[in-house]
Amino acid sequence: MEFWRSAANPWGQDVLIGVSWDLMWAAIIVAGLFFVGHAIWIKTRPAVEPAPTGASAAGLPERIQRHSLAARLFHWTMSASMLVLLGTAFVPVLGIQFDWVQIHWIAGVVLTATIVYHVIHSIGWQDFWAMMTVGVGEGIATLKHIMSPKAPPPPKAGKYPFDHRLFHHTIVVVGLGVIATGLLMMVRIDTPFWTRNPYMLSDSLWGVVYVVHGLCGVSLIFLTASHIYFALRPEKLWITWSMVRGWIDREHYVAHFDPEKWVVGEAEDAKKGSIASGAVADASVSVRREDT
Amino acid sequence: MAEKLIGTDIAPPDLIAKITGRAKYSEDFRADNMAFAKILASPMPHARVRRVDASRALALPGVLGILRAEDVPQRDGPREAVLTDEPHYEGEPILAIAAETEQIAAAAIELIDIDFEPLPFVIDPLESLRPGGPNAYSGGNLFSDDAWSEIKWTAEDFAEIDAGRMPNAEAVVEWSKGDVSAAFAASDLILDEVIVHQSLSHHPMEPRSNMAYWENGKLFAHVSTQSAQRTKYAMAGMLDMDPEDIVLVAEYCGGGFGSKISGSTIMALPAFFSRKINRPIMHRVTRAEENYIGRARPGFQSWLKMGFLSSGKCNAIDLYLVEEAGAYGSGDNGTAGMVADLTYTPQNMRFRAVSIYTNTPPKAAQRGPGGAQIISMMEPILDKAGRELGIDRLEMRMINAPDADVSFGPRDSQLTSVHAKEALRMGAEMFDWAGKQSLSGQRVGSKVSGIGIGLSPYTAGSRGFDGLMLISPEDGKLHVHQGIGNLGTHSIADTARPAAEILGLNWDQVEIVWGNSSRGMPRSSVQAGSQTTHAHTRANHAAAMDARRKIQEVAARTLGGAANAYRMDNGVVTGPGGRMTFAQIAARAIELGGEYDGHTLPDDIHETTVPAATGLAGKGLMGVAKDNYGGEGGIYSWVAGFAHVELDVETGVVEIKEYVGITDCGTVIHPRSLGAQVLGGSIQGMGMAMTQRWVFDPQYGVPFAKRLYTARPPGILDVPPNMSWGAVGIADPQSPVGAKGIGEPPVGAGAAALTTAVADAMGGKCLCRTPLTPDIILAELEGRTRAHGRLDMHVG
Amino acid sequence: MAIIRDMIPDFDLFQPASVDDALALLAEHGREAWVLAGGLDSYDWFKDRIKRPKVVVDLGGVAELNGIREVEGGLEIGAMTTLTEIVRDARVRSQYPLLADAAEHVATPQIRNQGTLGGNAAQDTRCWYYRSGWPCYRAGGNTCYASAPKAMNREHCIIGRSRCVAVNPSDTAPALIALDAKMIVRNERRPNVYDAEDFFIGPSTDITRMTVMKPGDLLTQIHIPAAWANANFYYEKIRDRGSWDFQLVSVAAAFQVSGGTISGARIAVNGVAPYPLRLEAVERMVIGTEGDEAVATEAGELSVLGARPLRHNDYKIPMMRNLVRRAIRSAV
What we know:
The complex is a heterotrimer.
Chain A: E1 4-8, E2 14-19, H1 22-44, E3 63-65, H2 69-90, H3 101-125, H4 128-132, H5 136-147, H6 162-185, H7 203-232, H8 237-245, E4 247-249, H9 250-256, H10 267-271
Antiparallel strand pairs in A: 1-2, 3-4
Helix pairs in contact in A: 1-7, 2-3, 2-7, 6-7
Chain B: H1 15-20, E1 35-41, E2 47-53, H2 55-59, E3 63-67, E4 93-99, H3 102-111, E5 113-118, H4 125-129, E6 142-144, E7 147-149, H5 155-162, E8 173-177, H6 180-186, E9 189-197, E10 200-201, E11 210-215, E12 218-222, H7 229-239, E13 246-249, H8 269-277, E14 281-283, H9 287-293, E15 296-297, E16 300-308, E17 314-324, H10 332-344, E18 349-356, H11 371-389, H12 393-400, H13 420-431, H14 433-436, E19 443-444, E20 447-459, E21 466-471, E22 478-481, H15 491-494, H16 497-502, E23 510-513, H17 532-559, E24 567-569, E25 572-575, E26 578-581, H18 582-592, H19 609-616, E27 621-626, E28 636-648, E29 654-664, H20 671-690, E30 696-697, E31 702-703, H21 708-711, E32 722-727, H22 745-761, H23 774-781
Helix pairs in contact in B: 10-11, 11-12, 11-22, 17-18, 20-22
Chain C: E1 12-14, H1 19-29, E2 33-36, H2 42-47, E3 55-58, E4 68-71, E5 74-78, H3 83-88, H4 90-95, H5 97-104, H6 109-114, H7 117-122, H8 128-131, H9 172-178, E6 182-186, E7 191-195, H10 196-199, E8 218-225, E9 232-238, E10 249-258, E11 261-270, E12 277-278, H11 280-286, H12 293-303, H13 316-329
Parallel strand pairs in C: 1-3, 2-3
Antiparallel strand pairs in C: 4-5, 5-8, 6-7, 6-8, 9-10, 10-11, 11-12
């Protein structure tokens, strides 16, 4: 397997020109194996009852608002652009040729715009640092619980479970990598706003940009596929639906969340400004403070 | 009575071999155990070799060795070496590999692990002149007094340039004559123009392939060169060896156009490599390599101001040239200034120039160097003046062309003879200039006619070389030993004809000995600058007069009577004492010895003629002499070219309908050969003006148009079926034969006839750049934006 | 690896005697095989050591690919028929002079003697960045050098660019489109018949190929339908010099005329797009007209709608417009 592609530049120097498309296949295969493995693991693992919580259903509405309409539209805009980006990037590599560049860059601009919105919003209107925090103890407990069903389950999370936060941070890194390099690559194409200039960076620097873009791109194949896989898993459908409908029902709230960390109802206002760790963004959506 | 030879057509002695393919060019030779060399060329316009690992290449079966820059002499400054570790243009040879076959050598080159450090480069001299602009060499962009320096113009200079005006910028070359500003003040019309002439590769048909081997300390070199005797000495200089230890074989040359004058730098590669690995080495140069290591005509970016009186007389010229000097320099600008002054006789002129090193393939004289460019550039401006002043364009040339009393250039140079006006008159008549005036600007369908005229001078001779010839006792024939090259111009034969005529011989009684230095070559001119016809008709005239005297004396000493009473005709000497054949004379000369058979040589012949003549001593009656006819002033020939073109205004395509070229080149020696030179040179000029091009990518500094189909020298379908030529035929008074050279001047005439004809078809609009390809013509006609700046180079 | 040009590297040469054998070889060697027709495109690539096939399948010995046959509904021309044969063929000259005219505009007599119709149609682009071995999109790299801000792109496209801006260099291709020729492409599995205009593809379809043909495919015949026999034809090629030169812009057109009006038209232009460009809008516009100067002018303007020049090829817009005008003028 090759990791990257190189070529002799016009001066005969070996320069990187991108990742090897073998990596695309690797990402697809790894994702496939992971899903099959995970499915088998879930099937063979003894069912774990959610630990009882101190939460009481009393006083809670039947439907607990989880994502506002704006947040949902925003999530789906971003997912659509991501899917378009992945499709326009990799379908031609699979052999189905079409004029992908324009669609790709426009989708990239849409994605960038949503991310910019998300970043500004999360910094300005949400408790940014609280969202970004991932506890080590929480991680160890989660890992132990995964390794052995006998281990005690990790403490319940606030609005966003541990795995969601971890996934988010991975996406942040990979997404920023692909967006930064993608935006840089925009100077190499003609748009209505400027004429292309492939010579802004040297051949070898461009090679690095292409490799980073490609590595992030193939990573996103895996990450996006995982996201979709978990979203479609039967035991997770209730939370997937919340991204469509906006709410979860009271029972799920009580079963899965720590009401101290995700305060619902009248207590909410009191918590504003000092939200506990755990109330971080969903895997790939922004969470507006007023959602909670 | 022997036939008259001067002024009649003959078949040159190399004709059949060339037509049948028997002629052996340097790459056709094979030596026992011969190996092949291939070069690794620089991929960058300016770089330094950081590291070379040739171990894998040398391990390839069949590979015999490597030649590196350290194996060949290197010189400081912008001086070319056979191989270099600091290339200054893409394609410059870095190293060579020798192998049993070319295929192996090429495969081995690919196995070499080589690392170059790219260095700053420049391909447009104006860029190098900009404040802070890049230099072609690490030391600077100007080399004088054996040191590098930098010349940069100021931001103010470039503000002037950007405004389309001549900058008052620092020049490297500057001269003036008369009172230029007063003359302009007195001018009734002043034209101010920005003109670009492209740079273009020579692209002779035969690339400069060479083969060499060593035997017993002697070098045997098969070389593609324009010259012969002088190439041997150039080779000796490159190898730092005794010239008499070189056997140089150069019988045929498939063109050079100035790029192989005394050979070329790369011709020493097989000699060095052969000496290193002790095998004969053939280095076949490919077409793409020829594009790089062959030479190129430098381009000019220029500002021209011309002042005219209402009479049409040009009274002032202010000319500023920026010359693209390539990696190793160029001197075309100097000639350009001289030719401008000569052709338009302004009496008041300022000439300024800078010649800037660039990282483009090396420049060299190309047929009419400097002159062809400036004539192609300035003739449309003269036409413009004629239009504005309401004076016929032919008349403008008659008014401004020089007569025999001309003095021109910074040193007020004189000429031996000038018959430019006769050429113009004769051409106007043959072309029907007056009758064709009605065609000018006439539109039929989408085609508009244009009529053009170009008058082009160039140097056409030199003096003082030696002639060497022998009458053989075996066949009684005259063997004329030529040290000039066989460039395809027939001059090896044509320059021998005065000798045959002096000795009363028919052409079949003359053998030309050429192309192999071991057979004896007298001191000769280089085959360049159109020197040979003039220089070597004189030298052979002198040697034939020497032979004639000796024949008469041998006859008189053998048969009795006064020597000068003996007459010779058709290989027989007849006089008071009876008759002798030339064979008998030659045998008798050997018996008499001394000066008659070359055992005693004249004191004044060149030292390099002596070994050649000594080698021939005792083999017959020898005629050997230096050209002592003397003379004063430069020797220039002229060509007046007339063209009728049709410009298709819907496509920008120009079709040349008719061309007439008339030359003033003194006595006509060989009409058919002369016609080929007048028209062939004109066609080369047409290509220079219209089709041929050289394009560089500015980002990487490398040329495209590397091969003939992209470089586009003109083909037979690009020239009119209706082409004719003529010669004024007035002898040059300072030569006993009266002939002047012809190679160079037709190029400027052919080019200018077209630049002026196209401008005429466009209603007098001068695009003022070459080549005049359909794209720029159509863009102009359609009023569309120009793709490039007025001064851009290398855009084709 | 140091670079050296102008020396053909080794390859395995196969010289099949039948189409079936040739197809079997192409199937066996897949991407490593190169089809050699007249060699005028191929040897350039080989010489420069840029395209380096392991296997070359020389079609010179496949007799069934040679010659021009009259078949029902038209002429069938073997892909290996030389351009000279096409120029000289009496049937082509009398019924389809457009094709003879186009073939005669190819390069030089020597090249036409060696070059084949199939090879001419299927040849690769002459973009000099690509042909210099630079790692451009078409060569599998990640940039187009020819459309960089200061690039030398006078010969490149004004229409249909998609990352790559190279043009199709074929002289016969637009004529084949104007004649509604069918291209018969075989591989080991089956024959495919393509309309000429679909045979040529642009970079948006596949940036590394100029035609629909993939490894294993072989252009075997070109069928010229009788429907356009003896139509009014127009061919013009603008080039920098009179021979041995590719087009700047060329136009090929066929018109059927009845009662002084144009009843059918097929017009194709080459040198303006990465593929020979059929001008269907212009065809529709001129049908039913007399092809007078006003129509011709309008057709010319219509043909260049949406054309977008690069730095050095703006001239192609008026050149294409004027050639289309001329073609329409000639129709009736």
